[in-house]
Amino acid sequence: MFQRMRVKESREFCVAARKRMDMIQNASVESRVNELLSRMTLAEKAAQMVQVPYAYVTEEESLLWARRGAGSFLHVLGEDARRIQREAMNTRLGIPVLFGIDAIHGHGLNRKAAIFPSQLAIACAWNPALAEEMGRVTAREVAADGLHWTFSPVLCLGRDTRWGRINETFGEDPYLAGELGAAIIRGYQGDDIADGEHILACAKHYIGYGDAIGGRDSCDTEMTFRKLRETFLPPFARAVEAGVATIMTAYGSIDGTPFTASERAMREILRGELGFEGFVVTDWDNVNSLIEKQHVAADMDEASLIAARAGNDMMMTTTAFYDSAIRLVESGRLAESVLDEAVRNILRVKVRMGLFERPQDRGTPECLGCEAHRNSALAAARESVTLLKNDGMLPIREQVQTVAVIGANADDIRAQYGDWTYFTHPHMPPNVVPARPYVTLLEGVRACAEQRNVEVHFARGCGPRPGETDDLDAAVLAAKDADLIVFAVGDVIEQAGEYRDRADLTLSGRQEELFSRLLALQIPIVTVLIATKPLCVTRVVEESSAFLAAFNGGQYGGQAVAEALFGEINPGGKLPISFPRHSGQIPVYYNSLPGWHGEKYVDLPESPLFAFGEGLTYTRFAYSNLRVNPETLLLHVTLTNTGAREGSEIVQVYVRDLVSSVMTPVKRLIAFQKIKLTAGESREIVFCLKRDDFSLVLADERRVVEPGAFVLFVGGSSQDQALLKTEISLI
Questions:
Q1: Dihedral over Cα of 327, 331, 334, 335: its sign
Q2: Average model confidence (pLDDT) across the chain
Q3: Cα-flanking dihedrals φ and ψ of residue 388, to 5°?
Q4: Of these four, 45, 225, 450, 528, which has the most CB atoms within 10 Å of its CB?
Q5: How far apart are the C-alpha atoms of 352 and 344, rounded to whole Å?
Q6: Which residues, at least 6 apart from 707, have a Cβ–Cβ distance to it below 8 Å?
Q7: What is the DSSP letter of 573?
């Protein structure tokens, strides 16, 4: 007992010591920031609040902005960045520039870097440790390139799959998005943001950007403050808890007020309630959008006044803010203290990052694309593979001696990478070619087949883009003597990303026609979806022997899928997003509000084709002995691997409020664990639930826990038939 007391006392001492050290460090940071601020001119303050788009200014203009004291530059690398930084450090105050870049799933705009699965793909792994590792590797590689800041993670929810940026989200659920977002933030920023190996994270887009009307990018949102708090705010709250350094505003509005103009959203909620201490950056030219798009400001002076008062600290690409801010203060329309607050937020981050001491040449250049980082990308791809249907054809059996790989996406690394890489991003030069190493699905199948003396035939057949040169006859010829067809379907980057939304999510081009012709051969078909989002593939799924979702698997996505096909790995991914049966069914997500009048459609089931949390393995899992203690809120369930091989199961916990003063979802995710079991192994899984897990947001926007009865569901997907359930009463 004495020993335990000593250990406890020691821990308490360490915690107290750490708090004292943090207080000392914070005081030192504030002192330095205040001293700098006291010496800054009005013009220098205004410049700090500007982020310059390097691609849209001349070299001379970029150096002029550096001499003015611009706070940040966007998308500038290498010697160009070093030149700008030298200019900035030679100014009167020597305040370093922050260099920001869209490193979304790896440092993808550098051709040497490791490219990970997209956020949507890695969300299929339901593994925060994996997301954290992606953040850590990305940070190392971005830092090695002399940059300081990534505009990631995207914490928008993917609820309307027509939206072009679905691939950048962690899916449809706020809890899962929050957990994965917090993890990747920890990876980006580390324990010491000043160590030269980590970078600033940016949680975006605050808030509700992904809920745009009709799934149209940058279209307005039908947002209310209660809806914000109930559904869209929780991932950002987790990001703030994780210490995210920056937050980016969204294009939309709330109750008619653009988020860029909403003091309530930014000052009251983000800073006042959540306690955010970093700085807020607008999205691309958001200030100008107040004039040109949203029409709440007559000119740049008025737009700048609105944006500054609302709590935006840095204005991305709206360089006209500089002159406007100076005029506004000099004319008395804007208090200089507003600029002081914004600049203080920016300088605080720069000081904590150690940029004054190490403004450039941070990181380890030799780490770019190193073997260890590539291995992390491969591990992420393997855990992201999601098996959604299997009639027994997988893993590929020994009797299969010939495999036909059909479809353009089977050997199109651009489709496999998705958005935000050095040669797939729409703004990149068209002649930029991919750099090895990478493994497409075709290459992965050939490598696995070679080890088994399996013959592989390939034909492109057709691609997702309408109007491309297709040869369906050649595809049928390549497949007609095969024992198994691996059919790759999906989309390409020209059909997704910013400003690339789709009203029709059926397979584009002649992919459906090609499937029909392959089906006529009466050879088993395994379909692999290589796409930026869930597509409407109902017929393909129904008539295929197996179906896998690979989404955008990164540089080793093809290898991971091939290993799953041949049984070298046991796929264990689960969907972070639902698959619609038809575009007319959208939006379809599991945590909807209850309805009535049957299944609503006369021609289509209400249920999705595949539900949130759904995914198969090559083994089977059984759940039993569900129980929960209403006082401690400890939930216990026994998980058993009843199959013949080792596998991973994602144990999911959902809650339903049986009676509440406001409508609540039919169920919502409150906890999950990823568990690996050997064949025949059983394990008791324990969840430490919190009272707040049962909370709701009232009509007056207060979050409370109402006493009463709740149903807890535990199982391997959000589908009712896959879940055990028990009731609990809270007082």
A1: positive
A2: 94
A3: -115, -20
A4: 528
A5: 12
A6: 729, 730, 731
A7: -
Q: What residues contact residue 167 under an 8 Å CB cut-off, 6+ apart?
A: 118, 119, 120, 121, 418, 419, 496, 497, 532, 533, 551, 552
Is the distance from CB of 105 to CB of 70 less than 8 angstroms?
no
pLDDT band at 20 (very low <50, low <70, confident <90, very high): low
Residue 297 CA to residue 629 CA, distance in Å, equals 56
Query: Could you tell me the pLDDT band of residue 17, with boundaries at 50, 70 and 90?
Result: low
516: Cα within 13 Å, side-chain hemisphere: 5
Sign of the alpha-carbon torsion through 179, 184, 187, 191: negative
Would you say the C-alpha torsion 115, 430, 561, 444 has a positive or negative sign? negative
Q: Find the mean pLDDT for residues 656-670.
A: 96
C-alpha span between 458 and 479 (Å, rounded): 8
CA distances from 611 to 212, 711, 720 (A): 22, 20, 10
Tell how strand 634-641 and strand 682-688 pair up: antiparallel
pLDDT at position 560 over 90: yes
CA distance 36 to 1: 53
Residues whose CB falls within 8 Å of the CB of residue 400, separated by 6 or more in sequence, listed in order:
454, 483, 484
Q: How confident is the model at residue 433 (pLDDT cuts 50, 70, 90)?
A: confident
- In three state form, how does the secondary structure of 162-210 look? CCCCHHHCCCCCHHHHHHHHHHHHHHHHCCCCCCCCCCECEEEEECCHH
The pLDDT, as a whole number, for residue 1 is 47
Q: What is the β-pairing status of strands 72-74 and 257-258?
A: unpaired
The 8-class DSSP code of residue 514 comes to H
pLDDT tens figures, 119-165: 999 999 999 999 999 999 999 999 999 999 999 999 999 999 999 99
Token code pair at residue 605: 């089931």
Structure tokens at 212: 């745009």
Cβ neighbors of 273 (< 8 A, separation 6 or more) are: none
**Does residue 214 register a pLDDT over 90?**
no
- 110-119 confidence digits (pLDDT tens): 999 999 999 9
Tell me 265's DSSP state: I
Task: Tell me the pairing of strands 525-530 and 546-549.
Answer: parallel
What is the pLDDT, as a whole number, of residue 204? 97
- Nearest CA-CA partner of 256 in 287, 213, 300, 223: 223
Nearest to 226 by CA among 210, 212, 214, 208: 208
What is the 8-class DSSP label of residue 56?
G
Asked if residue 173 lies in contact with residue 157, where contact means CB atoms within 8 angstroms, the answer is: yes
Interacting residues of 357 by C-beta distance below 8 A, sequence separation 6+: 194
282 HSE (CA, 13 A, CB side): 36
Helix (H) or strand (E) holding 623: strand 621-628
Distance CA 136, CA 155 (A): 18
Express each pLDDT in 514-552 by its tens digit: 999 999 999 999 999 999 999 999 999 999 999 999 999
Cα dihedral across residues 188, 191, 193, 195: positive or negative:
negative
Between CA 69 and CA 59 the distance in angstroms is 16
The band of 567, judged by pLDDT with boundaries at 50, 70 and 90, is: very high
Give the whole-angstrom CA distance, residue 35 versus residue 463. 60
Q: Which residues of 459-496 are buried (b: 16+ CB within 10 A; e: fewer)?
A: bbbbbbeeeeebebeebbebbeebbbbbbbbbbbbebb
**Percent composition of the chain: helix, strand, coil (DSSP 3-state, to 5):** 40, 20, 45
Residue with tokens 């659920």: 173
- Position 5 scores a pLDDT of 45
